[in-house]
Automatic annotation (TrEMBL):
Binds 1 FMN per subunit. The lineage of its organism: Bacteria, Pseudomonadati, Pseudomonadota, Gammaproteobacteria, Oceanospirillales. The gene is pdxH. This is Pyridoxine/pyridoxamine 5'-phosphate oxidase. Residues 172-212 form the Pyridoxine 5'-phosphate oxidase dimerisation C-terminal domain. GO terms for biological process: pyridoxine biosynthetic process. Residues 38-159 form the Pyridoxamine 5'-phosphate oxidase N-terminal domain. SUPFAM superfamilies: FMN-binding split barrel (SSF50475). NCBIfam families: pdxH (TIGR00558), PRK05679.1 (NF004231). Its cofactor is FMN. The keyword Flavoprotein applies. Homodimer. Belongs to the pyridoxamine 5'-phosphate oxidase family. InterPro entries: Pyridox_Oxase (IPR000659), Pyridox_Oxase_CS (IPR019740), Pyridox_Oxase_N (IPR011576), Pyridoxamine_oxidase_dimer_C (IPR019576), Split_barrel_FMN-bd (IPR012349).
Length: 212
């Protein structure tokens, strides 16, 4: 079979303005709960984070959503990683949730801001102990000669932190992506998909239908 012959129609549901909440975070919560209930994947919080580096080169990677509220979407990372360097130079980012079994996508456009040390510490201390040790071990995005060297460094850190609580590394933290636009996409038949976009307005949010 040729790749161009692989296709399917989207027929599960439609999406109307009348169905939509007044603000995107309330609408996100509704869809997110439905995605959790559907047990779509082992990583229901997985989202693609897109950034742009100093040369204008975009890049994407999967990160895990760790919180969301009226202020935006939260994830954590090494603050010396490529993504963090990109954000330091250009904090405009995009998030993408793909829930294909539900024939749905959500695209978030916004600005990333660093979380406070207190917020990062609260989350870091809630992580499994070996995940905390891994955060100390990995110089994220830097080259390493072999897997064995990485594992040796991990064992050294385990020995270092045998007793007591593991402190938050100074190079580890989180970001909150404050949305400026959020698109909700529902697949429809004949590729006439439903796309509804929330955009920040002077007061509240404006909701518009986009052509597919």
């Amino acid at each position: 079979m040729k790749l161009e012959d692989i296709r399917r129609d989207y027929t599960l549901a439609g999406l109307s303005r009348e169905q939509m909440a007044d603000d995107p975070m309330t609408q996100f919560e509704d869809w997110f709960k439905q995605a959790l209930a559907a047990e779509l994947t082992a990583d229901p919080t997985a989202m693609s984070l897109a950034t742009v580096d100093a040369d204008g080169q975009p890049s994407q990677r999967i990160v895990l959503l760790k919180n969301y509220d009226d202020q935006g979407f939260v994830f954590y990372t090494n603050l010396q990683s490529h993504k963090a360097q990109d954000i330091a130079g250009n904090n405009k980012v995009s998030l993408h949730f793909a829930w294909t079994p539900l024939e749905r996508q959500i695209i978030v456009y916004g600005e990333a801001e660093k979380l406070s040390v207190a917020e990062a510490t609260r989350y870091f201390l809630s992580r499994p102990r070996e995940s905390q040790i891994a955060a100390w071990t990995s110089q994220q995005s830097q080259k390493v000669g072999s897997r064995k060297l990485l594992e040796q460094a991990f064992e050294q850190m385990k020995h270092k932190f045998q007793q007591g609580d593991i402190p938050l590394p100074s190079f580890w933290g989180g970001y909150r992506v404050r949305p400026t636009k959020v698109e909700f996409w529902q697949g429809r038949g004949s590729r006439l998909h439903d796309r509804l976009m929330y955009s920040q307005a002077a007061e509240g949010w404006q909701l518009d239908r986009l052509q597919p």
